[in-house]
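note to self: dont lose this again. the chain is below, predicted strucutre after it. 328 aa total, dont forget to put it in the shared folder this time
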Amino acid sequence: MIDGDVPSANLTEIVEPWFLGAGMDSPPGQEFVAWKNEVEPKGVSFYDSVDALPMTTEKKLALISGRTADNPRLLQEVIAKGCTHIFLEKPGAPTVGELEEMAAFAAAKNVAVFMGYNKNVTKYVTLAREFEAQTPGASTTFIHNNAYKEEELPECFERNSEGMLKNMAVHELALLVTYYGVAADTIQDIKADKEFSRVLTLNGYTDFASVGFTITTTAGKTVTVKANRTGGSFSEAVVHVDGVEKFKSMTPDEELEKIVAVKQAENPDYMPYFFLQHDDYITLKERCCKHIVEGKPGAPEGIATIDIAIETLKVAEMLTPKLQEQLA
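---
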C-alpha cells in the first residue's frame, strides 16, 4: 500500500504492540523502529495498541493480522474505533463458536468482514477449476507445500497451535467450501492418505507434519487435499479422470519462480511463501478496497466472507479428529 500496489487504498495507521512495546530493544524491534522512522514521513502513523488509535468518521478498512487467539478482541476493538470494514486473516478465530460471535457482533454494527483466503483468487487454482468444469468425470487434488526444515517443526507447531487444518491447509478447505459444496453436513466420506500423512507430537503439541485426504460429498463430488509442512516452496492443482492425470497447474510458474528467487536472495530470512503469495494478497486487498470505495453491497468477486470462514472452521474441526483417528 505504501508503494502504491493497492491503488484504491491509502495506508494511514499501523498498530504494533510488541515492537513498539516490550520488544522494542530487541534486534527485530530496532529494525522495525528504523522502518517506522522511514515511512512516517509518508503519512503513516504508528500506535502500540488499538485503544491508542484516533476515532474514524469515514470509510475505513482494518486489516487484522495478529495471533489467531487475539482476533476476537481485536475485531471488537477496531469496530469500537469506527472502522466500517474488516479484512481478517485466516482462520479468523481459534474456534467456530468464537468466529460465530465475531460475525454476529460485526453484523449488529453493520460492519462487513472479508477474509484473507488468497487461494480463492490464485491463477493456478482458477486454471484447474476451469479445466475440471469442462471435463466430465474430473476430480481435483489440491497440493500445498511449505518449506520448513524438520528441525523447525517444533516451533512451527507451537506458533500455529490451532493445528494445520486451521492454519496452513485452511486455504484449501476454504476452496472446498467456496467452490465444491463441502460443508460439515455435506461430507459423506473422509479417507486419509496413510502413506502421505504424518502425525507428530512436538513441544507438547500434536499436529500433522503432512496430511492427505479425500472427501466425498452427499452430492457425489470428490476432491482431495494434500498439505506438507516440509514439502518445498510450491503448490499444485492436479485434475484426474479415472485416476489418470489430465491437467496440472502450479505456483510458482516459471515467471513467478524467477521473481521469487530474486526476492528470496535479497531477503534470505523470509519464508519463501511470503513472496509466492505476495501478488495474490495484493489482488485480495485491491478487490476489497475498490469494492468499498465504490460503495457496493455484499462481497467482491472471489473474496470469502466471514460466513465462508465459519463453515471452513466447522469442516476443519470435523476433519481433524477423524483423520487423526484413521492415522493412529
